[in-house]
Structure formats: C-alpha cells, structure tokens
Amino acid sequence: MLVLQVLTNGILLGGLYAVVALGLALVWGVLDIINLAHGAFIMLGGYLTYYLFTGLGLDPFASLPLVMLAMFVLGYLIQWGLLNFLVRAPMFNMLLVTFGIDVVLTYLAQIMFSADLRTIRPAYAGSNFTVGGVTVPWTNLLAFVVALLLTGLLALFLQRQRWGRAIRATAQNLGAARLHGVPPRFAYALTFGIGAALAGGAGTLYGMVAQLTPYVGVPLTAKSFAIAIIGGLDNPLGVIVGGLVLGLAEAFGSLWLGPTYRDAVSLGLLVLVLIVRPTGILGRAS
Amino acid sequence: MRALVWVLAAAAVAALAIVPFTLSPVMVQFGISMLLFAVLAQGWNIIGGFTGYASFGNSVFFGLGTYGTAVAMVQFHLSFALGLVIGAAVAVAFAVLIGLPVLRLRGHYFAITTLALSEAVAAIISNLDIAGRNQGLILPLIRGDTMFYELSLGLMVLATLTVLWLARSRFGFGLIAIREREDAAEVMGIPTTRYKVMAFALAALFSALAGGIQAYYLTFIDPASAFDLSLNVRMIIMAVFGGAGTVLGPVIGAFLLSGVSEVLASYITGVASLFFGLVIIAAVLFTPKGVIDAARRLPRRGLAYFLDAVRETRL
Predict the structure, then answer these.
(1) Of the residues A221, B8, B134, B146, which has the maximum number of CB atoms within 10 A of its CB?
(2) Using one digit for the tens of pLDDT, what is the confidence trace for A95-114?
(3) Would B181 be classed as within a structural domain?
(4) Model confidence band, residue B30 (pLDDT cutoffs 50, 70, 90)
C-alpha cells in the first residue's frame, strides 16, 4: 500500500514537473537558448498568484490566465529588448546574461516580497479523498490536470496554429523560415514570451503545492533541465514523460534511499541519460 | 614591446607581493579572495576559453580541493602541504574519470552535465560521515593572512604562466583547434580525447589548489559554500569579461569584477547582488570579446565600439 501511495505521489509530482519544464524545453528546442532565468520566472508567477489571492481574493486557478498573460508580456519584452541582441554571440554569453536576469529577478523579489516562506492556500487546500487506501490531495490532482492541459494546448498550438508552425519552422531552419515570411525577431520574442507564460502558469501551480521563497528559482531551473533532457526537445509530450520519470524517481528515491538523496537521484539520472542517450528517451537518434 | 609587457607584468607581480607589508589587513583579505578568483577564472580559461568547452562545473573541482584538503587535515591530521596535494590529486582523478564520458558531449549538453555534476557531488558529500555531512568540517585555526596571500599570488602566477605556455605550445594550439572545429582537428591528427581530458585535468588542478587554500584560510567548510553554483558563473563571467582565450584577460577580469563587487557591497549593501546581476548583463552585452579587446580598439573606434559589439551578435 505504501508503494501505491508513493506511486501516486510520484505521478502527481511528475505532472507538475512537466509543466515546470515546459517553457524551458520550448525555448531551448526552438531558439537554442537555455534560459537560466526560467526558475525565476516560475517564482515570479507564484508570487503574482499569491498577491492576487491575498490582495484581491482571486482563486489561484482563476488567476492562472492573468498570470500567464503578465509573464508573456515580461518574456516578450526581455527577448525583444535584450536577448535578441545576443543571439549570434558565443553560447556561454547567453547563459551568462540569462543568469544575470535570474540574479536581478531573485534579488528584486527578495526586496519586494521579503525572504519569508509563502504558500497559496485557498479554502480547499489540504482537503483530499481516498481511493483504495491511497490518499489524493485535491490541489495536487487539479494542478496535475491543469499541467496536462497546458502541455496539450502547447502541442496543439505548435501543430495547428499558423504562428505555432512559424515557431517550429524557425526551430528547423531560421534562414528558410525567414524566406517564407516569418519575421525572426518577432518569432523569437513570441516564443520566449510563451515560454515565460508557461513558467508563470507553472508558478501558480507550484505555489499551491510547495512553499515560495525568492530562491526557489535555481533548483527549479536545474530540475527543468533534467526533465527537458530526459524527455527530449523534439515535442512537448516528451516533457510529460520526462516529468513523470523524474517525479517517480524522486518519490521512490526518497522512499528507498532517504529524502537527503532526493536531489542526487534526479541529477544522477540526468547525467546518466545525457551520457547514454543524449537525445532523450523519446528523442530521435542524432 | 614584448619586453615591455614582461617588465610591466613583473612589476605588477612585485607590487602585488608587497601588499601585505604595506596595506591594511582588510585589503589583504580582499586580495586573497581576488587572487583566488583569478586562479579560478584562469582555470576555466583552459577548458572554456582555449578548448571551447563551456564548463559550468569547475566549482566541483574547487569543492573537491577544499574537501580533500580539509579531510586530510582534520580526519588524518596531515600537514597543509600534504592536504593540498591530496585535494588536487582527488580533483584531477575525478576530472579524468568523469571527463572521459562527459567530454564526448558538446555545446549545451556539456554545459548542463557539468552544472549537474557539481550539485550531485555536493549531495553525495553532504551524506558522507568522513566529510562531516551537512555540518561541514572545522580546520585547525591559523593566523597567517600574509602566508595565504603570498600562496594565492604564487598560484595565480603559476596558473597564468601555464596559460602563457598553452598559448605558445603545440598542446595549446591543439586545444584552440578543438575549439574552432573539433572534427577538423581530429582529421588533422590531434588526439582530441586525450587533449580535452588533459585540459579538463589542468583546469581541475588549479581550481582544486585554490579550493585547498580557501579551506585552510577560512578554517570552515560546508557543502553549500564549497559547491556554490554561483561560483561557476562568477569565474566564467570574470574570464569572459576579461577575454576568454587570452593569457591575461581572466586575471584582469577577476581583478576588475572583484573590485566592482567589493565596492558595490560596501556602499550599497542589500542591493549589491542586484547590481552585480546588472553588471553581468551589461558586461556581456557590450564587451562580449572582453576588456582586452575593448582596450585595444576603443581608442580608435570610440563609443561606436560598443554599438559594433551589439550589432555583430544581434539577430
């Protein structure tokens, strides 16, 4: 029975992890930019939800679209006004600048929101139901469902929508996409904006099941890498696989090895996958 | 011209060497941290600047150096010198073992694997009894800022001379060829795997020695400070800001940025980190080739230099 409970926890955690990594995987796969500020975006989304909830009494699930919109604007502006100027620089320049953004956002958050722990706790937080001896918290289940929905919507957008296809074309061949009328600066800013919006949405969900501090960004970025690499960058559904693998590995790692080994398990898994199968579990061989 | 550079460099080292005897203890402490950062930046320069492998995990070597030295001194009561040797040996051995699989990865994948490595090793260390788990280790107390300062200066000079040798030797040219185009380098008969692992091991050696000095100097280490992720970014930004792949760039970058963060920290406490983030962004955006390149061309191009730098890398 303990194993079943841990399995459930792992799967629920995995769904959340999928949406945590979704934006990073999109930006990485399409723009070839590793956004080290991704976790800081998630943190900002979480705080935005927190203040909409405590200030205006807005339900976290209702504030999700608002938070995503605000984060989209922020991401669009960052790519359009800053990162677009670095696209052709050596790879580590982009890593350094996104790290700089992470530092700036983290310390702005520390100044504005203080370093106190915050949790978004609507009235239904903490309530749960039991199926066959396995306890399922409602918030975690809802967060899981929303995470899957967002992932599905992104996949649909990339497959069917005009601009989604333009983004995929940009990922495949920038020159050819430009020849077919995709304005690259706009396409880059749009993609980065969507990545930030997804991070914001992930922040809303994260803030309901975990505690927010200004410093949650870096570990979340690290987990997002692991998930993106385990799942591969070819399609958003890979991120779900990556999230589930990581969620389950952490849940069972905590059970069998003890909770202090939780991070070592996820990072060890990352290194293993990178060395054995660098294109991800679902990825095509390069 | 070349003779002049040598004379200037020797004069600069001599001037640095007398700092403990002329300036205040606070300046000496700042000097130690600045010199150790210069060593780390120079170590990164070997693998990142020359070989083109953007390692985000050099702090793992620094951390192994601190722990190797500390465990040798605390648990086995060995001397500091022996501790340094053991710390360096552990880090170099780790670099060779992990380098063989990891250096097969390229670009972002290499960067991220190395980033994860330092986290993973930190997690393992904080579960080891011999390394004092999460609490860390306390080393024997010693009063000798001058000794640590001169040791750090010596290590920095050694690291810089090694990079100078790289810039002129067959091995160094091989590394540059790997950076520019690895497949072509392989075809030209450069033993790419051996060279990459050697460069990684050299970087590990200097980072670990810096770690060992830091451990004994601070007399306290724990996993969080020994495997600090932001240390990676600091050493890279210093090397890049000074000029990655140049001999003196990383040292100049380390001195300038250490100075900037020290001034920021003393005048505007509280928001110093925030400004350091902005400095990183501005430095990379406007001087992507480093201050050495900027100093060379700025007099002729004027402010247009910065616009050119941005124009060259924009989408």
Answers:
(1) A221
(2) 889 989 999 999 999 999 98
(3) yes
(4) very high
Residue B42 lies in a domain: yes
> Among B244, B171, B170, which residue's Cα sits nearest to residue B202?
B171
In a domain, B261, yes or no: no
Helix and strand counts by DSSP (H, E) for chain A: 11, 2
Q: d(Cα A152, Cα A68) in Å, to the nearest integer?
A: 16
**Residue A126 lies inside a defined structural domain of this protein:** no
Residue A128 phi/psi, 5-degree rounding, is -150, 175
Nearest to A93 among B102, B112, B288 (CB): B288
Tell which A residues from 226 to 255 touch B, by Cβ distance under 8 Å: 226, 229
The tally of domains found in chain A comes to: 1
Q: Is residue B250 part of a domain?
A: no
- ipTM for this prediction: 0.83
Using the CB atoms, write b or e for A142-165: b if 16+ within 10 Å: bbbebbeebbeebbebbeeeeebe
Domain range enclosing A56: 2-115+145-276
pTM: 0.85
Check if the beta carbon of residue A83 is closer than 8 Å to that of residue A94. yes
List CB contacts (< 8 A) between A225 and chain B.
112, 115-116
Average pLDDT over residues B290-315: 82
Task: Please compute the mean of the pLDDT values over residues A245-260 and round it to a whole number.
Answer: 85
Q: Is the separation of the CB atoms in A142 and B312 below 8 Å?
A: no
Contact B116 A278 (CB under 8 A): no
- Give the range of the structural domain holding residue B169, as residue numbers without chain letter: 29-228
In the 3-class helix/strand/coil scheme, how is B34-77 assigned residue by residue?
HHHHHHHHHHHHHHHHHCCCCCCCHHHHHHHHHHHHHHHHHHCC
Q: What pLDDT sits at residue A280?
A: 60
The reply to whether A62 falls in a domain is yes
| Within a domain: A32 | yes
pLDDT tens, position by position, B38-63:
999 999 999 999 999 989 889 999 99
Side chain identity at A5, as an amino acid letter?
Answer: Q
Task: Give tens-digit pLDDT for A74-93.
Answer: 999 999 999 999 988 887 78
CA distances, B76 to each of B70, B72, B144, B307 (Å):
9, 5, 22, 57
Q: Is residue A281 part of a domain?
A: no
pLDDT, mean of residues A197-209? 94
Residue of chain A nearest B228, judged by CA positions: A218
CA distance B148 to B80: 12
